[in-house]
Design a protein that fits this description.
The chain is built from 26 helices and 6 strands. The protein is mostly helical and 493 residues long. The two termini are 26 Å apart.
């Protein structure tokens, strides 16, 4: 395996990978030009940080977005941190038509649920991955996209299982995207009757047809353990079984005669309609489909759920071992607001722990790749070369096999460093077909290579970084860019 020292020696000697691609093809260039003409962007002079430590502006951009673009810090400086946070907490008020234009070019994105079966699963997976990357790179609703990533893991569905190959696209479109910054109860309720979730965790097989039948408890267990109360949330095996009884009778059906209509339905004949008691709350007999509503109310507003979700949010935005004080404040607001996500996040972003925890989160592979594309103002079709990079790093969108989703913590991702270095070299040298940067133009926009380096690092280079970058830039400027992207400072946010 290549060591870090060998990598630095390699690029300092000018031995970086040769260019392999031709950049964006004609169709992609034309599409970009048309979209840019319809939705012109205001040109703004970049204002990189100047201090030796990451300041609050850069910190907020690192956490609430997938990484700053060249002009973002100047925008934030003009707007103010608090105003920016409020704007991001209300994504519906942000004009994001250019991003929507780009996503709409993907063939399967707007196909009705039932008609998705007419498309190859490979195309749907490709379009889903590309759409996720396009939004992460180009959306102005950056906090929403960060939260989409959060919920995609929290309510993970592996696309490879059965009809999830088609229905995960519907789940992303109908559950994750619209509820990412809404109500916790709403996102859990939507997920509970998502066709993909019913397939993935066997909810469609949860039926009681005879008195001796036992409900399928797969989804009920994950609902309590992962989605709401948490593994130490105080529930018992009896609570799991009672939750499964509440969920019995929900299924997913097709009517192949009616244009491949796929629908979720409640079948009373498959439901256990007896009295239930869940987490100390009695659910009367005869509730039918409303048993699901009572179940969601109980678990969404449980004391343990507030702590579990607050812990995960603080782990996402503060550090891997979230401070107890911050978790407590965020959990209190989650309870007070009845799971209102903007209110909960507003309190989180105001905590001193959030504002002081700079550079404490290791970027997962997708965050690293997207932050590099954003930092270099890359034009990308988010195609196969980028998706292949994420697969090699073990972070392929929608392909984690177990319900707990991709890990948030840093340690599982340390083994991806070599692939990150390779990606940095390929990106700097325009060797990724479908993706293109213009490094000389970027340096001109910043006014100097030093200002450009400050933009990438989020602060002024320290003496060792400056020496390495100066040495490399003198003989191979693009390798100096790759070295900056591969530096420890760029791996952390």
């Amino acid at each position: 395996m290549t060591t870090r020292r060998e990598f630095i020696q390699h690029i300092a000697a000018g031995g970086a990978l040769a260019g392999l691609g031709l950049g964006l093809g004609g169709c992609e260039r034309l599409s970009e030009e048309i979209a840019s003409a319809i939705f012109p962007a205001e040109q703004i002079i970049p204002r990189p940080p100047s201090g030796t430590e990451v300041d609050l502006l850069t910190h907020v951009l690192n956490r609430l977005t997938f990484g700053p673009r060249p002009e973002d810090r100047a925008w934030l400086e003009r707007q103010g941190v608090d105003a920016f946070i409020e704007q991001q907490l209300a994504p519906g008020q942000i004009d994001d038509r250019l991003c929507a234009w780009r996503v709409a070019e993907l063939e399967t994105m707007a196909v009705p649920r039932g008609e998705l079966y007419e498309y190859p699963p490979e195309l749907i997976l490709n379009d889903l991955g590309r759409a996720k990357l396009i939004r992460a790179v180009s959306s102005k609703r950056q906090l929403q996209e960060v939260m989409v990533e959060f919920w995609s893991d929290h309510l993970n569905i592996a696309i490879a299982k059965g009809e999830c190959r088609w229905m995960k696209l519907a789940d992303d479109r109908e559950v994750i995207q619209p509820h990412a910054l809404g109500s916790f109860r709403d996102v859990i309720r939507a997920s509970a009757t998502s066709p993909a979730m019913l397939i993935y965790l066997d909810g469609l097989d949860n039926k009681i047809l005879h008195p001796e039948d036992r409900p399928n408890e797969n989804y009920a267990r994950e609902l309590l353990e992962l989605h709401t109360l948490g593994v130490h949330g105080g529930y018992t095996q009896r609570d799991v079984m009672e939750a499964a009884r509440c969920l019995s009778g929900w299924t997913f059906t097709h009517d192949w005669r009616r244009y491949f209509t796929a629908r979720v339905a409640f079948e009373k004949s498959r439901h256990d309609d007896g009295e239930k008691e869940l987490l100390g709350v009695r659910i009367p007999a005869g509730g039918g489909a409303d048993d699901l509503e009572r179940l969601i109310d109980i678990v969404a507003h449980h004391e343990s759920t507030a702590t579990h979700i607050a812990t995960k949010l603080c782990r996402t935005f503060i550090e891997d071992s979230p401070p107890t004080a911050a978790v407590g404040v965020v959990a209190d607001e989650f309870r007070r607001s009845r799971g209102d996500l903007p209110s909960t996040l507003r309190v989180l972003f105001a905590t001193p722990e959030f504002r002081s925890s700079r550079g404490t989160l290791f970027k997962r592979p997708m965050r690293f790749v997207v932050s590099a594309l954003r930092a270099l103002d890359a034009r990308t079709d988010a195609g196969e070369p980028i998706l292949a990079t994420l697969r090699r790093m073990g972070h392929a969108p929608f392909q984690y096999p177990t319900p707990d989703g991709y890990p948030q913590e840093a340690e599982p991702w340390y083994g991806t460093l070599l692939w990150r270095w390779n990606f940095a070299i390929a990106l700097a040298h325009n060797s990724l077909p479908g993706t293109r940067i213009d490094a000389p133009a970027l340096i001109d926009r910043f006014g100097s290579t030093d200002a450009f380096a400050r933009h990438l690092l989020g602060r002024s280079p320290n003496p060792l970084e400056r020496e390495a970058l100066t040495l490399t830039h003198a003989s191979a400027p693009l390798d100096a860019l790759a070295l900056t992207l591969a530096s420890p400072a760029f791996q952390w946010q």
